[in-house]
Amino acid sequence: MPKVVIVTDSTASIPETLIDELNIRWVPYYIHRGQEVLRDLVTAQSDPFYKWLPTARELPKTASPGPGDYITLYEQLADEGFSEIVSIHMTSKASGAYQAAVAARAMVLETIPKLQIEVIDTLNVSMCHGWMAIEAARLALAGKGMDQVIEQVRRMIPVAQMIQTADTLRYLYLGGRIGKAKHLLGSILNIKPLISMKDGEIVAVGQARSRGEAYRSIARLVEKAVGNKGKIKIAYMHAAACEEALKLKELVEDRVIAVESLVCELSPALGVHSGPGTAGVCYYPV
Question: pTM of this prediction?
Fold first, then answer.
C-alpha cells in the first residue's frame, strides 16, 4: 500500500475511470439551485444538469467545500492507514477550497500530529489541476515519496494551460467569475471569446467570429506554446458538447503530438459558470 494519497475536488473533472484506477479521493462542490442544495457529480449529474441549465431563470450559486468536508476525508484516510496526504485544489483566486483545506489541515494535525498533509493551490482550474492530481497519483502508486509527488505538482503549475471558448460570456459574468476578461462583454453578440487563466485569474486571449475559427485559434495557440509537433498531455474539455471537443481534438493533434489525450466533461459546478456548449483544452508540455 502506498503511503501517499492524493486528494482533490470535483472541479478537477477527472474521468471516473482514472479516479478509480489511481485511487484519487475527491470532495464535491456545492450547487445551490433555489432552495435545493446539490453536490457536484453526486446529486448533480452532468447530463440532466446541462439540459436544465439553459432554462434557468436564475443561475445556481456554487460554493466550495468547507473545512469540515476536508476534515472528514483527511481523518478517513488516516483511519485507512495513509500517513501522507497531498491535497490539490483549483485556484484560490476563484474558489475557497484551498483556504478550506488549509484550515482543515491545521485542525486535523491537532488530533493526528503524525499525519503529513500538504495543501497545494494550483492557480488553475478544470483538468489543468486534474492533470496535476493524475500525475501525482501515478507517482504515489509507483511508491514515490511525498517530496517527489509535491515536486512534480510544483513543476506543472507554471506550465499547465487552459484555453476554452463558449457561445457567450453570460454565464461567467452572471456567476462573477469573469476575472480580467470583462472588456469582451461589449463585443458583438456573435463573437466567440477565447479565455485562459494567468496567475489564477481568467484572462482573455482572443476572440473569433465562429466556433471553427475559435478552434483553429486554440490549435494555433497550443502549437505556439509547445512548438510544431511538440509533445503534450492534453484533455479536451466540454460542457454537453462532446462532438465539439472531438472537432477541436482533430485540429490540435494535427499540429502537436499528444502523448496522452482525454476527452472530459466539465463538472456541473464549473459548467454553471461556462455554460453548455463550452469546449476547450487543458494541457501541459512533456
Answer: 0.92
